[in-house]
Amino acid sequence: MADPGKPPTRDELRAHLVRTMIAGDVATPRQNNLLHYRRMAAGNPYYQFGLELKPSWTERSVLDMMVERCGVNPDPRHVYGDDTIDPDITLDTLEAMGDRIGLAARRKETVVVATGHPATLTPLYQAVARALAGAGCRILTPAAGWTYEIDVDYGGSDLRRIVYAEPGVAMLEGEDFRTHHTHDPHPMEAMLRELASTGADSAAGGPSPASANSGNGETMNDKHDSWPDLAIADHGWAGAAGQAGIDTVGFADCNDPALFAGAAEGKIDVVVPLDDGVSPHHYAPLTAYLLARAGLSPKD
Length: 300
Description:
With 300 residues, the protein is an alpha/beta fold. It has 9 helices and 11 strands. It has helices at 10-19, 30-41, 59-69, 87-107, 118-134, 186-201, 235-243, 257-264, 284-294; strands at residues 24-29, 82-85, 110-114, 138-139, 147-151, 157-165, 169-174, 179-180, 230-234, 247-252, 270-273. Strands 3, 4, 5, 6, 7, 8, 9, 10 and 11 form a 9-stranded mixed β-sheet that branches. A hairpin with a 4-residue loop joins strand 7 and strand 8 (179-180).
C-alpha cells in the first residue's frame, strides 16, 4: 500500500488481493469446489447454510452461478487443481457491502455480527463492529453460552457454545476452550429465537414472533427493539439470518456456494467472494477499504 495510514485505492487493493491470493488465483482446490456444488444442489443441509434454497439447482447451474457471482473458472472440464475468484467482483461487492454498512451507521441500526472463521476473519469483524458501535449502532449479543452437540470425525460428539469477541462478534468455542470453524446455522437460529422471545416478552402480552409463522400473520422477523436490522456474517450464521428475512451481508469462499445461491434467490443482500483462510493481517487493507466506503473511521 502506498500509505499505511490511509485506506488503499481500489487499484491498490486489487493488487493486494491478487498478491495475497485473497482473490485472483486462490488456493481453494477445484475438486473441493465441485464437490460442494454437487452436495448443495443435492440438498445436503450442511452445504445449504440454513437457507431453504429452490430444488431446481443442479451442479452445472451452481457452477454457472458461481462463475457469474464469484468468478470461478468457467470450464466444466476443469475438475482438478486450483480455482479462481474474480478480484473485480470482490471489489464491487465489497463496495456494496460498505454502502449497506454505511446506511446502518447513518440509521443507527441494530446489528448482529458473527463468523464461522474465527481464526482468520475475527479482526475484520471486530473492526466493523467497533466502528458501527462508535457510530451509535447497537451490537446485539444474544444467546451467549448457548450450547449444542456436534458429531466429530473421530466418533462421538463434542460441545459447542456461543461466545463473543469484543465488542460483539459471535463465534463458537469448544470444550477445549478454543474457537472453532463452523458451517452450522444452528447458533444463529438460537440467537434469533432468543431475540424473538425477548421481543415477545416486551410486547405486553402481544403475539409471539418466536416462530417463522405464528399462524396469525406475524413472522419471526416482525420488527421490535431487539430484532436485528442487519446481519454481517458468513457461513451458516449468514444463511440463517438471511432465511429469517434479515438484511444480510457477508463473505464466502469459492467452495461455499450456498450464500451466493441465497443472493441469487434474493435472500442474502451482498456476498463478497474471497479466500477466507489466509493470514488475518492480510485482510487489514480490505477492512480499511470497507470502512472508508461506509464512511466510518476505525475505532481502537
